[in-house]
Structure formats: C-alpha cells, structure tokens
Design brief:
193 residues; alpha/beta; Uracil-DNA Glycosylase, subunit E; six-stranded mixed sheet; 12% strand; binds iron/sulfur cluster
Length: 193
C-alpha cells in the first residue's frame, strides 16, 4: 500500500457521516519520505473546496512558520485526524475520529516520520488522551501505549487558534522554531543508535 492507495480509499469512504455533506475528501498531501508529519483537526471550508489540507488562513500561517524554520512545505506531510469536513466546522466527534483513524495509522506506517507534530488538542488527544495542549505544547515526548509508543510527538497549538490571538501566535511561533533543532537531534540519535 502507498499514499495514493489511501487517497483512493478515503475518496470512496463512507464509514462515517462526515462524507455526506463534504464536497471533497482531504486525505493529506506532501512527501512520502517526510521527516515531519503534521496532524491537524479536520478540513475547513477552503480545504473542502480544494481537497487539500491547510490551504486557508491557518494553512497560510503554517506555511509561513515552516519558511521561518527553513522547512519547505513540500518536504513534509500534512493531514488531519478526519479526512472529510465536519458540517459548519464543528469539532469532529469521537466516533468519527475513531472511524477515520486507520487511514491516519496507515499514513504514519508508510511515511515513518522522525517526528509527528500534533496541531491542537484533537490531534494530541488521539494519541495522548490524558494530556492538555496548554500543558505540553512545545515539548517533544515519546508516549506509552499501542497508538503512541513508537513515535516522537511534538504538540503545538493549532494555527487557527493563533490567527487572531497575538499572544498565542507568539507562543506557537516560539514552539515551532524548536522543530529544526529537535529534528536534528532525533536524526543524530538515530544514526548513533
Ligand atoms: S471522515 Fe474519515 S471515516 Fe469519515 S467518511 Fe471521511 S474518510 Fe471515512
């Protein structure tokens, strides 16, 4: 299986109600060899129109932050915990997140990223259900549990939450700037282990 296979499966998926009102599926995009995998919450209006993740205002901000970290957006992979837009941008429901999780798990297994950046509380709590984003943002962690034990996670606030909140925006930029250093450390420890 490769990322194109997942894209096709997501396009045809009817496992939860989110496909009913969506215009397009949004499986994710980026490099199959990405060192960094970004996981957000759900597609929004613009993403639903275009079938691409993080193409609205929050996506623009994410791309700006990546540039500031000297990371090319084409070199990472960006997706969400659910692949169809929830109506009126409501939060995805637990059963929708569970139904959609096998696609995300397959993406992680194929890409094998060095670090998984969890954008906001929905992505965080899918893997690390007991943690609060306000407590752990900007800290790399390897967690216990069947969903989490193999990976290094780096939770940050969701870019959308920082758009109109200057304090949150500064915090998010500060956290994201730790990412290149973290990646370098992980790669170094992978080489020496
Ligand atoms: S959100 Fe996920 S589980 Fe629900 S229909 Fe879309 S692809 Fe399937």
């Amino acid at each position: 299986m490769n990322l194109s296979d997942i894209r096709e499966k997501v396009k045809e998926c009817r496992l939860c109600r989110l496909c009913e009102e969506a215009n397009n599926s949004v499986p994710g995009e980026g490099s199959e060899n990405a060192d960094i995998l970004f996981i957000g919450e759900a597609p929004g209006k613009k993403e639903d129109e275009m079938g691409m993740p993080f193409v609205g205002a929050a996506g623009k901000f994410l791309t700006e932050m990546l540039s500031a970290c000297n990371i090319d957006r084409q070199d990472v992979f960006i997706t969400n915990v659910v692949k169809h837009r929830p109506p009126a941008n409501r939060d995805p429901l637990p059963d929708e997140i569970s139904s959609c999780f096998p696609y995300l798990q397959d993406q992680i297994d194929i890409i094998q990223p060095n670090v998984i950046v969890l954008l906001g509380r929905h992505a965080l709590n899918r893997f690390l259900p007991d943690l609060r984003i306000s407590d752990v943002h900007g800290s790399a962690m390897r967690a216990q549990g069947p969903l989490a034990e193999k990976h290094i996670f780096f939770p940050v606030y969701h870019p959308a939450s920082a758009l109109y909140n200057p304090k949150m925006r500064d915090t998010l930029i500060k956290d994201m700037k730790k990412l290149p250093v973290l990646l370098k450390k992980i790669k170094k420890s992978n080489v020496s282990s």
